[in-house]
Amino acid sequence: MELNRKLYACMSAAAARVTIDQVTIGLGYTAVTTSDGGIGIAATCVARDGGCAGQRDATDFEGRPAIDLLGQIMEAAPMGRTMALATVNALNHRYARKLPEDPGNTLLFDHFNIRSGARVAMVGYFPPLVRRLEKQKISLSVVDDARGMGDKKTFYGQLDGWADVLLITATSIINNSTETVLAHAGPDLKTVLLGPSTPMVPEAYGHLPVHMLAGTDVTDVQGALKIVRHGGGTRALKPVSRKIYWLADTDPR
After folding, report:
1. Across-strand partners of 141?
2. Which residue pairs, CB below 8 angstroms and at least 24 apart, start in 116-121?
3. Cα separation of 179 and 185, whole Å?
4. Residues 173, 124: contact at Cβ < 8 Å?
5. In what side-by-side order are the strands of the sheet with 119-123?
6. pLDDT above 70 for 50
């Protein structure tokens, strides 16, 4: 996948300069810290066959050059890709800390005119967003493999002509479906890649119709690592992080 190659290319120079400090794999999220003080998280992948992630053969990346773990983004093993995506986010921590916040998704809704009458497609079920969309009586179509929701053929057809906005989970990078989904995007569709796993690396998406990145900047390293160890999810991470964003049409580059 081109996105994997671009993420690797964008972060390889940074990865060559640091080592992996700690890899923490929790039930909800995986965290990676680097020797320069960086931390990144990504949603822990669970095998689709229902198998436990703990069945994988473990490789110890701690103390090794970060480039070794970053390279897992090109591999097929989902858990390796999870760790690699967390590594991308750790290597990118200095840039992420400069990005503005959108704590209540106000900018997201306003910028893309998501209000009554709008039509939204969603890859990955986001409960807080779903509740808000339903409350505002916004038409919604969802596909989520883990929850057994949606018909992909119908959903893909809705991305060209029906949907105004596509909200796609960044865990799609882990299962290599991001580019497959976006290949069906119509010319007028506005696309937002979101969730704590989101790599805030704008230059990696130049070949894709991505209009907004909405990710997470961890502000309390030890607090976040404890939450990950205890199996915490997205809600638990809120007190130890900022919800950040990047908009394609406001980037001066």
Report:
1. 121
2. 118/164, 118/165, 119/158, 119/162, 119/163, 119/164, 119/165, 120/163, 120/164, 120/165, 120/166, 120/167, 121/155, 121/158, 121/159, 121/162, 121/163, 121/165, 121/166, 121/167
3. 10
4. no
5. 139-143, 119-123, 165-169, 190-194, 212-218, 241-247
6. no
Q: How many CB atoms lie within 10 A of CB 181?
A: 21
Three-class SS state of 100 = coil
Q: Which residue has the tokens 């915490």?
A: 232
Q: What residue has token string 């950040």? A: 244
Q: Which pair of structure tokens corresponds to residue 92?
A: 């990118």
Q: Degrees (nearest 5) of the Cα angle 97, 103, 107?
A: 100
Q: Specify the residue for token string 């309390």.
A: 220
pLDDT in tens, 26-47: 999 999 999 999 999 999 986 5
Q: Which structure tokens are listed for 74?
A: 């090109």
What are the tens digits of pLDDT across the range 196-211? 999 999 999 999 999 9
DSSP label at 176?
A: T
- Domains in the chain (CATH in brackets) are 2-93 (3.30.390.100), 106-219+239-250 (3.40.50.11590)
Q: DSSP 3-state helix, strand, coil percentages of the chain (rounded to 5)?
A: 40, 20, 40
Q: Please give the backbone phi and psi of residue 101, each rounded to the nearest 5 degrees, phi first.
A: -100, 155
Rg (CA), the chain: 17
